[in-house]
Amino acid sequence: MTFYPGFDIHYNLENKEFTYSKGVFGPEMEKRRLDDIRQSLKDPNCDGPDVVYTIAMDVGREEDKEDLENRSLLYGACIYAKGRLGNEPVRSQGHVHAVSKSCNSSTPELYEIWHGEAIIFMQETAKYDPGKVFAVKAKPGDVVLVPPGWAHCTINTNPDENMVFGAWCIRDFGFDYAGVRKNGGLAYFPIFSRNEIEFIHNTAYKKNNLIIKEPREYKEFQIDKGIPIYQQFIEHKDKFSFITQPCQYNELWQTFIP
Questions:
Q1: Among the four 56, 96, 175, 190, which has the fewest Cβ within 10 Å?
Q2: How would you list the strands of the sheet with 143-146, edge to edge?
Q3: 163 pairs with which residues across the strands?
Q4: Average pLDDT over residues 209-236
Q5: For the CA atoms of 56, 115, 5, 21, what is the dihedral angle to 10 degrees?
Q6: Tell me: the pLDDT tens digits for 113-134?
Q7: What pLDDT sits at residue 1?
Q8: What is the DSSP code (8-state) at residue 213?
Q9: Which residue range or ranges hold the Glucose-6-phosphate isomerase prokaryote domain (predicted)?
Q10: Strand, helix or coil for residue 192
Q11: Mean pLDDT of all residues in 34-50
Q12: Hey, what domains does the chain have and what are their CATH numbers?
């Protein structure tokens, strides 16, 4: 099952590469290797795919490029490998979005799954008490929002399939790994048990309840269900100001449930 993201970007799952049709811009792929993320795994010495995932940051329609730059808005896309990292699923290294100079705040990220199945794992902080902890299961067409300041990672839940997603984030994005690395990962480790993912508590954190849930509609942010989030930008250019100016939405973040 796949999902059309609203503009002509294509992906080759075999070599984990994006290609861009005429009128679409995009960079060469960045590669994240197993050695890059070992510090956040339950078993840092595990075997697995050398290239865990590839990234194309800053993709979109040529006609939107100047407007996206002026808004400090950026669309990125990722392809995750098949397979396992030892007994753990292929996933990203846990991190918090660093404070962006353009808005003086940590910033949110809005995911849209295109292919495969994912879990977006998130917790309020990377401190000993992680606060609220969620694992949001997502399939093609599902949208998941991670709030500013929350530690999170992205998980490919099916070892037999690649997983592909796109995401809105701020243009001057950055990553803060310090808290997650200090604690050897996030508050729970995803582990395969009979081909199903279970979550094992990371004892470096206080054991708060993990809520596993399906995605919801983000009506408070005017996100339309079933319409590609890039298409929603084309139709309503100001819609994603909550990505680039998160402080204007503090009241919503304070009570946020993904």
A1: 175
A2: 30-33, 51-57, 73-80, 163-170, 109-115, 143-146
A3: 80
A4: 97
A5: 60
A6: 999 999 999 999 999 999 999 9
A7: 57
A8: E
A9: 48-191
A10: strand
A11: 95
A12: 9-250 (2.60.120.10)
